[in-house]
Specification:
This protein has 496 residues and is an alpha/beta fold. 41% of the residues lie in helices and 20% in strands. It folds into two domains: 291 residues, Aldehyde Dehydrogenase, Chain A, domain 1; 188 residues, Aldehyde Dehydrogenase, Chain A, domain 2 (3-Layer(aba) Sandwich), CATH 3.40.309.10. Helix 1 crosses helix 4, helix 2 crosses helix 8 and helix 3 packs antiparallel against helix 5. Bound molecules: NADP nicotinamide-adenine-dinucleotide phosphate (NAP).
């Protein structure tokens, strides 16, 4: 199978313009600077494998400097009024919306996702700024009288302090705004460390924030290929008070160990392995469309992507064949091509993992309904794939595939579906399709996941608490809870 490799001319022109708007350095102490060593790292277009830009490759020394600056800026920043911070966020939302097309092009260029999805990501990312602009002026607090009646209890909410924000490459803007939004709203300064595959969106977002009035000293953006030693250097700075991390469970666990040494506040948005359950009473058309969304958003490279599809036996053949037909129609190619629905995977390693998990399913006896093939041409493409009758020992039932592959397993009863869905150490998202409200409620309550989609494959919104249970994470982003992650509670006892 061959993918369409030619980007549209208009898409290319926009993309070239956008690359010119990327700041030439990283952001430390209010200035755009090179790495002190002078070294840079290359950024690739995953659809072609070609280098599109280079950015500074920070060393631990640069990182320590950045940490010192944001710690110094904390006191002044936390004394700004909630209204001032709210207005910065509101302007950032508006500026992102005005520059949506340009930002979407940049996301497509460095991440590979189709332009339509990149536009949706920009809108979603901007909404976090709008949401947290409201939250900034609604911090609240408490007032109470102790049982003895003597004195009063005041409860106030204050910024946690300087935060280290580490993000992955799969949503280069939204994973950032989900952290930066509440950090600004609460009055925390921050060091941002984006993934090395997608640093350009982070740098442009930083300059956009400064252009709408965020004091430049409050945010440092460190681009680096030395995540481990750079983060270690940042955490050596005693003023850093929090880590918010989105990425794999493996790295999250490592950071939790590091955070324990310093007793830091942590928010961990980690890996998933989402079950997608279709009961025989479901609206099958809705379920197939939901499956395409839950599986194929971002080409399957999403932490809440449906990783395992459990379908009740009486409808399994029909669901599988309808899903295979839909997946067969998806157009794969360079994300800048207007008609493309599926872009490349992020890199060779991501593609190799998808290939290995597909081979494993097929070798164990899974039935290939569509796809399953490597795609020739440049870039890291894999064909949309559906595999039915996936055997229980298959690796995909225990590992995130992070690719455009839908494994289908049949089940007989509700209790069995729940047991299969919960048989994983992960608990980020889960989906269920049924017309029976009682079953929907029972299943939602029994699924061990931080988020459940009932009759929908799309659950993300800034107004809801996003996050996982079990080994999928700690804490929530978005909703009211997203703000609490950046706030400390202080109790004051007043006597007279
Ligand atoms: P990753 O390898 O864990 O990397 C995530 C970030 O952590 C990157 O910026 C990475 O930089 C950095 N990092 C790696 N090693 C580090 C270390 N020792 N110390 C500090 N930082 C370190 O994950 P990924 O492959 O980029 O992203 C995919 C994973 O993220 C999946 O498991 C997915 O489910 C999860 N995810 C979760 C959510 C959620 O909300 N729960 C959302 C999106 C993605 P380097 O690449 O330079 O190492």
């Amino acid at each position: 199978m061959r993918h369409t490799g030619n980007a549209t001319v208009a898409g290319h022109e926009n993309a070239l313009m956008v690359l010119k708007s990327v700041p030439s350095g990283m952001l430390i102490g209010g200035s755009w600077v090179a790495a002190t060593s002078g070294t840079t790292m290359a950024v690739e277009d995953p659809a072609t494998g070609e280098v599109i830009a280079s950015v500074p490759d920070a060393s631990p020394r640069d990182a320590a400097e950045a940490a010192r600056h944001v710690v110094e800026a904390q006191r002044t920043w936390s004394s700004t009024s909630p209204e001032e911070r709210s207005e910065i966020l509101r302007r950032a939302f508006e500026r992102m919306t005005e520059r949506a097309e340009e930002l979407a092009c940049l996301v497509t260029l460095e991440n590979g996702k189709p332009l339509a999805e990149a536009r949706a990501e920009v809108a979603y990312a901007a909404e976090f700024f709008r949401w947290f602009s409201h939250q900034a002026v609604a911090l609240g607090g408490g007032f109470g009288r102790p049982p003895s009646g003597s004195g009063r209890i005041l409860v106030m909410r204050q910024p946690v302090g300087p935060a280290l924000l580490i993000t992955p490459w799969n949503f280069p803007l939204a994973m950032l705004t989900r952290k930066i939004g509440p950090a600004i709203a609460a009055g925390c300064t921050m060091i941002v460390k984006p993934a090395p595959e997608t640093p350009l969106s982070a740098l442009v977002l930083g300059s956009l924030l400064i252009s709408v009035g965020l004091p430049a000293e409050t945010i440092s953006i460190i681009t680096t290929s030395h995540a481990d030693t750079v983060v270690e250097a940042i955490l050596k700075e005693p003023g850093i008070r929090k880590i918010s991390f989105t990425g794999s469970t493996e790295i999250g666990r490592l950071l939790l160990h590091r955070a324990a040494d310093r007793v830091l506040r942590t928010s961990m948005e980690l890996g998933g392995n989402a079950p997608f359950i279709v009961f025989s009473d479901a609206d099958l058309e809705l379920a197939v469309e939901g499956a395409v969304v839950a599986k194929m958003r971002n080409g399957g490279e999403s932490c809440i992507a449906a990783n395992r599809m459990y379908v009740q036996r009486s409808v399994a053949a029909e669901f599988s064949s309808r899903l295979a037909n839909r997946m067969r129609q998806l157009r794969v190619g360079h994300g800048l091509d207007a008609d493309v629905e599926v872009g490349p995977l992020i890199n060779a390693e991501g593609k190799a993992k998808v290939e290995a998990l597909v081979d494993d399913m097929l070798q164990r006896g899974g039935s290939l309904l569509v796809g399953g093939t490597r795609m020739t041409g440049k870039g890291y493409f894999f064909a949309p794939t559906v595999i039915a009758d996936v055997p229980p020992q298959s690796r995909v039932l225990h590992e995130e595939i992070f690719g455009p592959v839908a494994p289908i397993i049949s089940f007989d009863g509700e209790a069995e579906a729940i047991a299969l869905a919960n048989a994983t150490p992960f608990g980020l998202a889960a989906y269920a399709f049924t017309r029976d409200l009682g079953r929907a409620m029972r299943v939602s309550e029994s699924l061990e996941a931080g988020m459940v989609g009932i009759n929908t494959g799309l659950i993300s919104t800034p107004a809801a608490p996003f996050g996982g249970s079990k080994q999928s994470g700690l804490g929530r982003e978005g909703g009211d809870q997203g703000m609490s992650e950046y706030l400390e509670t202080k109790y004051v006892r007043v006597n007279w």
